[in-house]
Amino acid sequence: MERNVSLDWAELVEEAHRRRKSQKLTQRRLAAMANVSLPTVVRFEKHERDIQLSSALRILDALGMVERNIEGTLLVRGAAAGPYKVMFAPAAGAGKPLTPREMAERAALEELLRGLGIDAGGEEKLFADLVREGIASIPGLQLRPARARQLWPEQFGE
Fold first, then answer.
1. Which pTM value belongs to this model?
2. 3-class SS at 89?
3. d(Cα 88, Cα 72) in Å, to the nearest integer?
4. I need a surface site. Which of 7, 26, 45, 126 has the fewest CB within 10 A?
5. How many whole angstroms separate alpha carbon 4 and alpha carbon 91?
6. What is the Cα–Cα distance from 56 to 46, expressed in whole angstroms?
7. C-beta separation of 81 from 52 below 8 A
8. Are residues 61 and 34 in contact, defined by beta-carbon separation less than 8 angstroms?
9. CA end-to-end span of the chain, whole Å?
10. Is 74 helix (H, G, I), strand (E, B) or coil?
C-alpha cells in the first residue's frame, strides 16, 4: 500500500523556532537539551537540510513536537465467553474518565488483542483471568496516540 506523505519542512522549522522562543530557550540551551551541537541547531533554524534526521528529531522532541506512545494498562471485564468491556488506563492519566469499548463476542476481543500486539501467552492469561475473576489486565501496553483515539475516541479525542 503506497501512501503519499509530504512534510512541510519550512513550516516545521518555523514552528520549532516559535516554540523555542516561547519557551525562552537559547539555541545553546536547546542544543544541550536535544544532545546536539550548537551549529546543528543553528543550521536547523536556518532551514538547512544537511543535518541528520536523527538530529532534527532530537531537536523537535526537546521542544515537545514529537508524539510519544501512551503507556498504560489494558483492562477487560466480562465473562470468559463475553460480553466484554475493554478499557485502556494510561499510566500518566489522560485527563478524562476511562471509557469502555463494548465487545459482544470472544472473537472480536481476540482480534483486538492481536491488533494491539498481544502475544498468544498474554491472550491465554487474559482469558484465564476472566474465567477466574471476571476481570483481567495487561500492564505495560504501548499505544500510538492515533490508535488510542481510534479505539477510545471519547477518552482520547480532542
1. 0.65
2. strand
3. 7
4. 7
5. 34
6. 12
7. no
8. yes
9. 28
10. strand
